[in-house]
Amino acid sequence: TIMDEAPEDSAAYSYEAPFTVYSLAWSVRQSLTTPEPPSTSGPLRLAIGSFVEDFTNTMQVIELKDAALVSSLSGEAVPEGGVSSVWSLMPPPPPAPQRCSVLACSCEVEHPYPPTKLQWLPSADTNLPDLLASCGDHLRIWEVDCGAGKIESKGVLRTATQSKFCAPLTSMDWSEIDVTTIATSSIDTTVTVWNLDTQQAKARLVAHEKEVYDIRFMKDSATVFGTCGADGSVRVFDLRNLNSSNVIYEAPQGRPLMRMDCNKCDEHLLATAPLDSNEVIIIDTRRPNGPVTTLSFHQAPVNSICWAPHLARHLCSGGEDKQVAIWDLQEQDPTAFDKPFSASVLPASVNQVHWSKGHEDWVAVAAGSAVKTLHV
Predict the structure, then answer these.
(1) In what side-by-side order are the strands of the sheet with 233-238?
(2) Which residues face 182 on adjacent strands?
(3) pLDDT tens track, the chain, 376 positions
(4) CB-side exposure of 205: number of CA atoms within 13 Å?
(5) Within 13 Å of residue 301, how many CA atoms lie on the same side as its CB?
(6) C-alpha to C-alpha distance for 223 and 239, rounded to whole angstroms
(7) Contact status, residue 232 vs residue 253, Cβ threshold 8 Å
(8) Burial per residue of 96-108, b for 16 or more beta-carbon CB atoms within 10 angstroms, e otherwise
(9) How far apart are CA 228 and CA 274, in angstroms?
């Protein structure tokens, strides 16, 4: 069902940041420091990063809290239903949580330049430190203590050849298989793979002929990763043999590819979004002759794409047209994708979408200064 405007739904939550939100990431940690979450798989908690055209930016951790407590601390009235602004993609809405809860900021820290990506330690193990990674000028590791209301720097990773002023990082990915490994991409055409235990680079390579815009580890791998960049190609590398790479897709006329994501359930499927394009291109690594299909619902450039963590056929996309779309690649004709399974209009351009792994039926969206979570 296509929905032009989603109805209010008390099972969805909204947070209004004091800045434009660009980066956003779900936590998968199991510890419960929040009110009753929408499921029993852990707290509903996100990290968000600002986009301010200045050196000083902000990173916040927001989580579900008791609305009465937030109101008493802030002096603001509790919104009816415990949610300030809510929306949902698909009817009928799920039952509302029993507690009256809202998303609120637990802690924040200044961040040099806008963080281009945020990512939590991809482990639910509460015996591990509560770590958060960000990239911008450098790869930075932080430890979060929501109970104490603080975020502390645990390291700034840079190579020996990097001076104080280095090429900005465009993206990163934290390996779910080996949590000591993070890979970063840069506008200087390189990819660097980091060992977090030593805080040293264990591999650095020239990955593209031009800027590298995005990077992802492939499904169930700590050594194989994919990249896309300004040269219009999607490439796959293996840390065990960096002397070569596989070019699995080249855009017509070398059109730059800004975003990519590797399917979490099918190792052969990838999605990529070209620069200033309303299309999302689906690629099968077993079919190098061209894309499997092209999704062309959006009316303006696509800014963010994300595969569902639990189903190979589901994909989420968001764009400058203020729309978020959920695609089901199995139930529709793969040669004619002009409409998603569901869609909704947001109050501002969508900068980021992220499908939660800990809460598989929740998607977070950054649109302007608003962060929306929705039940799908």
Answers:
(1) 212-217, 224-229, 233-238, 241-250
(2) 174, 194
(3) 334 444 444 348 999 999 999 999 999 997 544 444 444 456 789 999 999 999 999 999 999 887 644 544 444 443 433 323 333 334 444 444 444 678 999 999 999 999 999 999 999 999 999 999 999 999 999 999 999 999 999 999 987 665 566 899 999 999 999 999 999 999 999 999 999 999 999 999 999 999 999 999 999 999 999 999 999 999 999 999 988 889 999 999 999 999 999 999 999 999 999 999 999 999 999 987 789 999 999 999 999 999 999 999 999 999 999 999 999 987 555 555 668 888 889 999 999 999 999 889 899 999 999 999 988 8
(4) 19
(5) 11
(6) 5
(7) yes
(8) bbeebbbbbbbbb
(9) 10
Residue with tokens 């499908």: 355
CA distance 150 to 289: 50
117-120 and 131-135 as β-strands: parallel, antiparallel, unpaired?
antiparallel
DSSP letter assigned to residue 94 = P
